[in-house]
User: Fold this.
Amino acid sequence: MADRSKRQRISRAASTSQVTNNVPPMFGGSQPDARVASDGEPGSFVEGSILRIAMNNFLTYELAVVNPGANLNMIVGANGTGKSSIVCAICLGLAGKTALLGRGDKIGLFVKRGCSRGSIEIELYKNGGNVVINREISTENLSQWTLNGKSCSQKVVEEEVKGLQIQVSNLCQFLPQEKVGEFAKMSRIELLEATEKSVGPPEMYTYHCELKNFRGRERELENTVNEKAAFLERAKQKNESNKLDMNRYYEKKRHLDMIELLEKKKPWVEFEAVRKEHESVKTEREEVKKRLSSLKQTHGPMLKKIQLINNQLEPIEAQIKTKTFDIKEAARKCKARRDQLDRKQKEIDDIKQALNLKHTEKVDEEKRIANTKTIIDDLQKELATVGEQPDVAPRIDAISVELRGHQEERARLDGEKSDIRREKDNMVAESKSGFAHLRLNDMNNMMKAKEDKLKVRHKDTFTAIQWLRQNRQLFSGNVHEPMLLVLNVKDPRFAKYVETHIAFNDLRGFLFEKREDMEAFMKEVRDKLKLRVNSILAPAVSCANKQPSRPIESLKRFGFYSYLREMFDAPTDVVSYLCHQYNVHDVPVGTAQTKAMINKVIEEPYLKLIYTAEERYVVKKSMYSNHVSTNNSQLRPSKFLTISVDAEEKGQVEQQIQNCERKIKDLDERLAGLRENFSILEGRDNELRNEKKGLLEQKGKKRQLEQKIATKLDSLQQIEKNRVDLKKLEEDTKTKIGAVNAQKVAMMVEVMAQIKLRASLSMLKVHLTLQTLGLTAEKTHLEGSCKDRQVELRTLEMNRMNSCVLCECSVHWFSEESQGLVSVQAFSTLPDTMEELDALLNEECSRAEGFTGIRENVVEEYNRREVEIQNLEEELGDLSEALTTYRMNMSEAKERWLNPLRTLICQINERFGEYFRSMQCVGEVDLHSEKEEEYDKYGIRIRVKFHNSTELHELTAHHQSGGERSVSTMLYLMALQELNRCPFRVVDEINQGMDPINERRVFNIVVRTACKETTSQYFFITPKLLQDLQYAEEMTVLCIHNGPQMLSPGDWDEKAFLRRIARRKKRTKPE
Assistant:
């Protein structure tokens, strides 16, 4: 141990006070340099090391001051005494976030219970004057900062801490208890960044960040160059295709120019033809004038004669119209009489048709009379053949009596069937929608809800459950699903006690009866399927029936009403494990009364762990002073076990449903028997009814025959009574026809008179029509001759006028067209006739039309793109040159960063490998990157091997065990210790998962490394130490004690304490 004359290093903490020797003034007024000067070792602390930590009303401390040493500081104390509180004070006092600690997200939660304010003060070593940081916190989640006695903001404190190379957010420097497991979960990239910040030169992490930014800029330049090059290539290809279009454009333009020239020569040829025609037209015009004059002289007499004929035709046409009207009137009257004659003829036909119908009725009547007489004769013969029959009445009465008996039996069977059917319907309704089915569905739904919650919280465990259900046949012993599913609390209020008492890793763990089953399961699920699951082995000897140390009745006076074991149901193996591991059979649960009597409760022996209504109490008794200390915590609401299914009740409900189904089956069998009896009765009834029907028919046959004969005789008399008299009917018919014929004769006389009148009128109309036709023919001839002369006259006049206009227009047209024509020399190579010109013009037009799909702006677009291509080539050259220069600069920056980093990784690897070899294990650290240029993908890869039979495996959160991860983490941090650029390092309870051998080896490495003069300050927090460990003089051991009997800081006397120890050793020394 370090000499006490060198430095006061031993501190003791109590629940009410903490004592240290030579405690400096707290919260202002301190002398920063006095602490180091009094040591006589001004160079032992590196800049940024912690000289003093003072806590007031902070977590478990009312008042405490810790004076750590310059090298390894071993903070030792039982669980709950306040070791991690010192870690929290370091983090929060140096402007760290509450999330780094994993204890709570609000600063007010770190104030001591029962107090409204607390404070932390940390003194840091610094050349030229120490730094004192004070943070006062309140339950309102407010903080007040002072730096060297002056009020300031948190930002100022953060800058000061950063300037001293302190990084409480870096797990390579500051590893609290709740974050130990997260170190192995860090990715390679995160581990590299944390290592750079922790042990690398100050500029290393900056270079790394710059390289990542440079790489991003390089990608942007590469993408820009590639895009420009691709665009340039596309532009060149486009212009090559446009060049062909441009040549076609010029070819088409040549044809269009030829067409324009041909169009301009056509007027020359047309003018020459028109000029020659003009001369002949002049001569014809004179001849037309003479002939026109003679025609006008002969046209007048014809018009006068046509007018005379029109005057004669008008009275004749008026007479024709009158005669035509009279003829139509006579024809109308004649047609009316003909219609009347037709109606009279139809009347005669109707009379004859009625007579024929009467003849037909007479024939049918005679046939019916004959048939009726035949039927009567047959019936009388049958009646004569029917003799005396025996009396069938007694047999009919016997059959009726038997049928009534069968009817009563059927009624009884129907009633019995109705009763059975009603009972069955009730049973079916109760089975399908009754309480039992509803309750069973509720239980299944609750199990589904529990599985859904587990799937959300821990998907790997849910996947493993599915695998187990499909492969349960692979295991020889009992395999239980996680306790979250098989453990059912009897009351949802009990869930928070059970869930708080049992660790979540056990709640989601699979419990095995046999070890070989557990190993096979983990090999399949963890190694092959890569699932993160927990497995538990049930005790070899069942503890399910273990009895509590005291009956619950003896504790009811304190408000206890049950042991934890009685609050839930679970399979026997699960209960055995919980009794063995968690002593659930001996943990009592109380009420608010227990809380009120807690001071008396904790004095009871054998009560080490208890629950009140809302809190959990852990009771510890000192082995030295027999004083009792407690550690209480608030119960958290249950997240999983509030949903519970009573397995016994579920079995009872399923048995109830099975009984109900069995009763329904019995009722179906009884109902089938009744249906069979009913069917037999129905068959017998049918036989009796048929027999009775035959007897009744035999008894009533004679009476029926007599009734039929009487009915037929009545029918025959009625037919003879209603016979038709044909002679009288024929005479009446002849009389009616004669009267109608007389009317027809009178009508015919009138029709003949009208016909004669119409004939005379028609002859007169014909005579007038012939006279009109003669006059009309003469008129038509004269009008035709006149019209021919008029047409000829108009034609001659129009020809004369057209000839004059054509001559004038031709001269005028040629004068206008000649203004736009080219010189005569341009036409010398072209044809001189219109036919040849049109043929050549059509040929040129066809050729020009063959050039389709040519845009008018193709030439302009080609020239514009040529300019763009030139500009792009210049721009691409500049960008390529810039990219080359940028890559050269990046290469220089890479050398500045990568070479020192590789050297640093080699140093870490040497120390890490050396530490592992000292433990007969293998460990390597290397710099890993998938691509050398991807600087954001660089990372540190840690590979370890703890057994000779295995290969090197990368350190992950899943492959190694908890102890192996802790050893690897600790040794990596120790490898950084000698290279450390940070002023101090904090590691909290990392040795919890190690076995004794590895713990001793790791402790020796920590002491050997952290106590070198070249290393910085190191805080190692642990609740326990093995015996016979090796210690160094440079170590500082901080022992933390907790309890109400602790002395106040002012009463502590170290010399008196040492004297008492010496006297005790003297008394115990053997004589």
Remarks:
- The radius of gyration is 65 Å.
